[in-house]
Amino acid sequence: MSNNEKQPLVQVNDVCKYFHVGKNADLKAVDHVSFEIYKGETVGLVGESGCGKSTMGRCMIRLYEPTAGEVMYDGKDITKLTAAEQKEFCKKVQMIFQNPYASLNSRMTVKEIVGEGLREHGMSAKDADEKVQELLEIVGLNKDHMSRFPHEFSGGQRQRIGIARALSVSPDFIICDEPISALDVSVQAQVINMLKDLQAERGLTYLFIAHDLSVVKYISDRVIVMYLGTIVETAETEELYGNTLHPYTKALLSAIPEADPDRAKANKRILIKGEIPSPINPKNCCRFAERCSYATERCFNEMPKLREVKPGHKVACHLVEE
Ligand code: SF4
To answer: Which of 21, 176, 202, 268 has the fewest CB atoms lying closer than 10 Å?
Structure first.
């Protein structure tokens, strides 16, 4: 069944998240963003730091309330859930955070951290302990780790604890917010492979937020590229990497190191001019215009719409024809 015929598990409809930062000044972290995620798939959400991708993820788990628009989970608006539905939502949707150092309470043991959600949802202490042991084994740790504190672990082990905590309440959907960017390169692949294995075993759905396009390519079925609060391009992974259309996506892809020396010579790095502009009261034009080598007058006067140019491939650029 193609995605067009399926019901999305998550639907983001025209979501905005603005932070009021002064008189007549709004920081538009997320600005009219729409996309959907289907059950069992991994959607990569990429862009430079400050593009709004983590804010978007936080709106999807109610850590932030959207300023406008709606996030639907399993057909229901997550801001309009009853108390019982909210409790169920908290079990079904979990988040793995970027910083495994900051996201674990340093005063709690691993047993308490991983078992917290289980006890909150009514499991007895004995059953919770058994479940924690099982979860630790799933993520490559063991029962001897249960009585230890977060500072006794390496970064990779802490992220494994974070993953065990997320899995503890048997979620369907996990938002992985830059889960490997704080880890040594040597352990990044282990964590990614573990996430892939868990998905295959448990039928999990992931939103994988990252700034590294090479990682996203490896794990994602579809990729969404954000720039300054808006989506600039989205497509299935193979299509996005093989038929890149937006100048910003092209520049990001050109920065991925190429292992093959011949291909590395052929692939010219596209440098993006200047710094990412301020997201406070952005101009109503192409947000990439100031840094784009192809910008025309129209780009500085009119915001390009996100248009579908091929089935499943959408791009927001005046130069790309339908
Ligand atoms: Fe560049 Fe214009 Fe396309 Fe924006 S709309 S990405 S400025 S060519």
So the answer is: 268
Helix (H) / strand (E) element for 305: namely: none
Ligand 1 residue neighbourhood (C-beta within 6 Å): 247, 286, 288-289, 292, 294-295, 299, 304, 317-319
Query: Which atom of ligand 1 approaches the CA of 294 most closely?
Result: 8
Q: What is the pLDDT along the chain (322 residues), one digit of tens a residue?
A: 555 567 899 999 999 999 999 888 999 999 999 999 999 999 999 998 889 999 999 999 999 999 999 999 999 999 999 999 999 999 999 999 887 778 899 999 999 999 998 998 888 989 999 999 999 999 999 999 999 999 999 988 998 999 999 999 999 999 999 888 878 888 888 889 999 999 999 999 999 999 888 889 989 999 999 999 999 999 999 999 999 999 999 999 987 776 666 666 666 777 788 888 889 999 889 999 999 999 999 999 999 999 999 999 999 999 997 5
Beta-carbon contacts of 34 under 8 Å, excluding residues fewer than 6 positions away, are 12, 13, 14, 15, 69, 231
What's this model's pTM, rounded to 2 decimal places? 0.92
301 C-alpha to center of ligand 1: Å? 11
